[in-house]
Amino acid sequence: MTATGRRLAAIFILAALPGWAPQSALAPAGAEAERIALLSWILFMGATAILLIVIAALALAIRGAEPVRRVIGSEGAIRWGGIVFPSVVLTLLLGYGLWLMREAIAAQTPPALRIAVTGEQWWWRVDYQRDGAAPVREANEIRIPVGRAIDFALRSNDVIHSFWVPSLGGKLDMIPGRTNTLRLKAERPGIYRGQCAEYCGGPHALMALEIVAVPEAEFQAWLAAADARNELAEPKVAAGEKLFLSAGCGACHAVRGTQAAGMVGPDLSRVGGRRFLAAATLRNTAENLAGFITDPQVAKPGALMPPFAIFTSEEMDALTAYLGSLR
Ligand code: HEC
Ligand SMILES: [Cu+2]
């Protein structure tokens, strides 16, 4: 293939990619995202058609036969093509956009599950609200039941962040001192990646999240299991818990059922069950966990966790075994 051919192939592949990627507004998995995708396609195709018409008119105006050029250059062409046509098209599009949004509002019927998501530099605090029980604290990975509307109560503890999971819906800012509510629904089980969509300093680009949509029964079982105390059957795991508590991790992190109740960093009660660490930055493996604890700055420069290069390899082994057992 020639260099130009390769370049063209790369462009076509990149253009098609968003449709398959886990984070794409062109791969909708909910009604809200479907409306946005539909509007995008209509705008894209309409704009392409108009662009082609304009190019054709331009070519005719330059190269066309004399009578054609006279028509294109006439006052009538400017009045109809330059004023009436854009006014009508833009008004219709505005009306259609407003109608779609009205549709979105009408589709909102309670009751919904409520999950509070708070933007932090540079991760996501997640609280599942429960009737008559304390909220279940989580971080960075949000499990939801399929087919049920969820109200995300979006807040921020520091600067403005923006919550955006393109396959499920539009983005909404997280503003300090305010609660913005975003209602989303996943129609199919799956993993939908999201991203902070408002520059919030330092490692903003490494502030991603995942929404894991599972069947209702699975979700309920997972939520109910939050209250169960983790087993420390293995001696290594028990030793890991001692290290976790004595090293001072609990000043910033909480693990339900232990003295660790810190609120500065992500809740670690079920960190072993998450797919990623540090806001979808690192795969959740023992090696990555050890590397992140030893020096968080390597994987996530600017992260607000201090380095802990204090553990021997056996100690680190126990510590990662303990964290991995928290599910
Ligand atoms: C001064 C507060 C502080 C201390 C002490 C601290 N951490 Fe952290 N930790 C954080 C913050 C903040 C983050 C979030 C980093 C990010 O993703 O931007 C974090 C993230 C993590 C994560 C990733 C969690 C996730 O869900 O992605 C793990 C695991 C972790 N810390 C383990 C530890 C361990 C083990 C210790 C003790 C050896 C410790 N931390 C001590 C503040 C702290
Ligand atoms: Cu951000």
TrEMBL record:
Residues in Cytochrome oxidase subunit II copper A binding domain copies: 110-225
Localization (cell): Membrane
Transmembrane portions of the chain: 43-62, 83-101
Keyword Heme: yes
Keywords: Copper, Electron transport, Heme, Iron, Membrane, Metal-binding, Respiratory chain, Transmembrane, Transmembrane helix, Transport
Gene3D superfamilies named in the record: Cupredoxins - blue copper proteins
CDD domains: CuRO_CcO_Caa3_II (cd04213)
InterPro entries per UniProt: CcO_II (IPR045187), CcO_II-like_C (IPR002429), Copper_CuA (IPR001505), Cupredoxin (IPR008972), CuRO_CcO_Caa3_II (IPR034236), Cyt_c-like_dom (IPR009056), Cyt_c-like_dom_sf (IPR036909), Cyt_c_oxidase_su2 (IPR014222)
Superkingdom of the source species: Bacteria
Catalyzed reaction equations: 4 Fe(II)-[cytochrome c] + O2 + 8 H(+)(in) = 4 Fe(III)-[cytochrome c] + 2 H2O + 4 H(+)(out)
Membrane topology value: Multi-pass membrane protein
Signal sequence bounds: none
PROSITE patterns named among the record's database cross-references: COX2, COX2_CUA, CYTC
Domain (Cytochrome c) ranges: 235-327
Recorded family membership: Belongs to the cytochrome c oxidase subunit 2 family.
Function: Subunits I and II form the functional core of the enzyme complex. Electrons originating in cytochrome c are transferred via heme a and Cu(A) to the binuclear center formed by heme a3 and Cu(B).
Name the record gives this protein: Cytochrome aa3 subunit 2
Organism: Bosea rubneri
